[in-house]
Design a protein that fits this description.
The protein is mostly helical. It is built from eleven helices and no strands.
């Protein structure tokens, strides 16, 4: 009879995510996670096989924070709610964003979130290729926006102030690049919640204008 499991998956996820939040992705190792759990590194191989398994833990931990919303019966409202919940979960853990962008989504928590968004988009009448294109649009906007908050042109450096960022942008534009200066004026320090919602409304409006079966987006 196998020995009883000492840790639950939720405990492993919580400990792994705490390490990454504090110290970054590079700090997450079998040894470091074992130390956090008060056990030996070899014990963890009963739960996680390799680095890929560790990464699955933290991606799953982030996506598990997204509470599945109840359906409203309106596809646009449902897409809006799910996308916002995804963004909030991702941006709470900026050190995990590169992994979410680059790692294949194959853990249960992530796949459940994906399925929820697909169901909402399917309710707009889309299927097949059109559903795929809509999903890539919305999910790409969510993750891309979160990434831009951390590493984009208007993102602050760690410990930097809004005033320092304004000076840097001013030095870059030097009286030129008027549109860049324009968005910098309203984007520093900025309001990420307002910006995200405004961008998401543009995405949803586009999905509403281009109706399923219209033929737009077909490769010629």
């Amino acid at each position: 009879m196998p020995a009883p499991r000492k840790f639950t998956e939720a405990q492993l996820r919580e400990a792994a995510l705490a390490i990454v939040d504090r110290e970054g992705l590079a700090a997450l190792t079998m040894r470091r996670l074992a130390e956090a759990l008060g056990t030996g590194a070899m014990t963890l191989y009963n739960y996680v096989e390799d680095r890929d398994g560790l990464e699955a833990l933290i991606v799953g931990a982030v996506m598990a924070e997204m509470t599945p919303p109840s359906r409203s019966g309106d596809w646009a409202d449902d897409v809006r709610t799910i996308a916002t919940a995804m963004w909030r979960a991702v941006r709470r853990h900026p050190n995990v964003i590169p992994l979410i962008l680059n790692r294949r989504a194959d853990d249960v928590a992530t796949l459940q979130a994906v399925e929820g968004l697909l169901e909402a988009l399917a309710a707009s009448g889309r299927s097949g290729f059109e559903l795929l294109a809509a999903f890539r649009l919305v999910s790409g906007f969510v993750t891309g926006f979160a990434q831009s908050e951390v590493t984009g042109l208007l993102a602050r450096t760690p410990g930097g102030t809004a005033q320092e960022l304004r000076k840097r942008i001013a030095a870059l534009t030097q009286g030129r690049l008027a549109r860049l200066a324009e968005i910098a004026a309203v984007g520093v320090p900025g309001n990420p919640q307002r910006e995200f919602q405004a961008g998401l409304e543009i995405v949803i409006a586009g999905l509403g204008v281009i109706r399923p079966g219209s033929g737009r987006g077909k490769v010629m």
